[in-house]
Specification:
The complex is a heterodimer. By secondary structure, chain A is mainly β. Helix content of chain A is about 0%, strand content about 55%. Chain A contains no helices and eleven strands. The mean pLDDT of chain B is about 90. Chain B starts with a strand and ends with a strand. By secondary structure, chain B is mainly β. Chain B is built from no helices and eleven strands. The chains are: A mainly beta, B mainly beta.
């Protein structure tokens, strides 16, 4: 599958700070998805993006589908301790299988 | 919302034995299911695509005779790890694609530990 470059690899922040992470791909994607995974669990969908330029919010989370269709970012505003986890970007081109980024590990201190 | 049930959540087995993992879509029909493997602190890697009523499509480097996939109905796919070895120890995750709206839903994963 296509390799996605996700950064940063990890973040260690204080409660209340905003967080930003992004993903780029070498090819055009039709869909970008952002997931959160907690230890011992499967990934849970946070936001799905289906159109270039689309900006979508889900509570304190905001994600955008890049105009070039090769990138996406996820922002978390006013982070709280329960935001801790690993965040993955994922996308697919013409097929149905998802390609995942390597994940961003987020730690939030009270 | 749509739920994908994956069972068992955790299994420990001896080297050489076979382990079966089930993935069920509880309130929707899934013509396609996907099996992923995730090693500690790494991303999810697609192993195979399972299509109802036909043979699975395996990704490069995944042994089809070792990881047997059966998708006999629109709500159930199984992954059997045959003659498991310690290097097969991993977190296995399935996902199912809703045949109506094409959305993907993930199971909660199976942690396999081979002694």
């Amino acid at each position: 599958g296509q390799q996605l470059n996700q950064s940063p690899q990890s973040m260690f922040i204080q409660e209340g700070e905003d967080v930003s992470m992004n993903c780029t791909s070498s090819s055009i994607f039709n869909t970008w998805l952002w997931y959160k995974q907690e230890p011992g669990e499967g990934p849970v969908l946070l936001i799905a993006l289906y159109k270039a330029g689309e900006l979508t919010s889900n509570g304190r989370l905001t994600a955008q589908f890049g105009i070039t269709r090769k990138d996406s970012f996820l922002n978390i505003s006013a982070s709280i301790p329960s935001d801790v986890g690993i965040y993955f970007c994922a996308g697919h081109d013409s097929g149905y299988a998802l390609n995942f980024g390597k994940g961003t590990s987020l730690l939030v201190t009270p | 919302g749509a739920v994908v049930s994956q069972h068992p959540s955790r299994v420990i087995c001896k080297s050489g034995t076979s382990v079966k993992i089930e993935c069920r879509s509880l309130d929707f029909q899934a013509t396609t299911m996907f099996w992923y493997r995730q090693f500690p602190k790494q991303s999810l890697m697609l192993m195979a695509t399972s299509n109802e009523g036909s043979k699975a499509t395996y990704e490069q480097g995944v042994e089809k005779d070792k990881f047997l996939i059966n998708h006999a109905s629109l709500t159930l796919s199984t992954l059997t790890v045959t003659s498991a070895h310690p290097e097969d120890s991993s977190f296995y995750i399935c996902s199912a694609r809703d045949a109506v709206n094409e959305k993907l839903f993930f199971g909660s994963g199976t942690q396999l530990s081979v002694l």
